[in-house]
Design a protein that fits this description.
The protein is an alpha+beta fold and about 180 residues long. It has helices at about 15-25, 35-40, 50-55, 115-130, 145-150, and strands at about 5, 55-60, 65-70, 100-105, 135-140, 155-160, 170-175.
């Protein structure tokens, strides 16, 4: 079957949340401790503002969600509706700021099939079309190898705020378009 893509709608939120929960649980386990994987559910997630802004993509194969991810012209770097991360909806200036690549998830059944690369390409093209000359993201340890292979450079390594005493390692990465 061929992969297709489209912009997510608010009606897609339940299937997106299901995929994200599964992806965090299954794809992070080779990179994080079980405690960090559990904490990741409160650090990561979908910011529904991306869907409302029309900047969140879904990749499907025969109607099955294979992956999702988006970009933003707002200042928030990462975190979802239900995460402990503060979000900042202020608009960015494409002349001076980097667009944000956000909430990238692959259905574990579709891992290593180019879904992440496809979504990154969609996000980068859209950000470039909106006048941005660079993009940045907050990468998980599981995502970092893909992003490095796609030209993203590490800028800063951080840890999340403690969640039940556990911190999740993250890396802010950037790429010129």
């Amino acid at each position: 079957m061929a992969l297709t893509h489209r912009i997510a709608t608010l009606d897609d939120l339940p299937v997106l949340h299901t995929l994200m929960s599964r992806a965090i649980a299954e794809l992070q386990s080779d990179f994080l401790t079980p405690e960090q994987v559990r904490a990741s559910h409160k650090v990561m997630g979908l910011d529904s503002q991306l869907v409302k802004d029309g900047t969140y993509f879904m990749v499907e194969e025969d109607g099955l969600l294979a992956g999702c991810g988006g970009w933003s012209w707002r200042a928030t770097l990462y975190g979802g509706d239900d995460s402990v991360v503060a979000r900042e909806p202020a608009p960015l200036d494409p002349a001076t700021d980097a667009a944000k690549v956000r909430a990238m998830y692959t259905n574990p059944d579709f891992a290593r099939r180019g879904i992440g690369r496809m979504i990154l390409g969609l996000c980068e093209a859209a950000a470039r079309g909106a006048g941005f000359g660079r993009v940045e993201m907050m990468a998980t340890m599981a995502g970092q190898p893909l992003y490095s292979a796609c030209g993203y450079q590490p800028v800063e390594r951080i840890e999340s705020v403690p969640i039940d005493g556990v911190r999740v390692p993250l890396t802010r990465m950037e790429k010129r378009l």
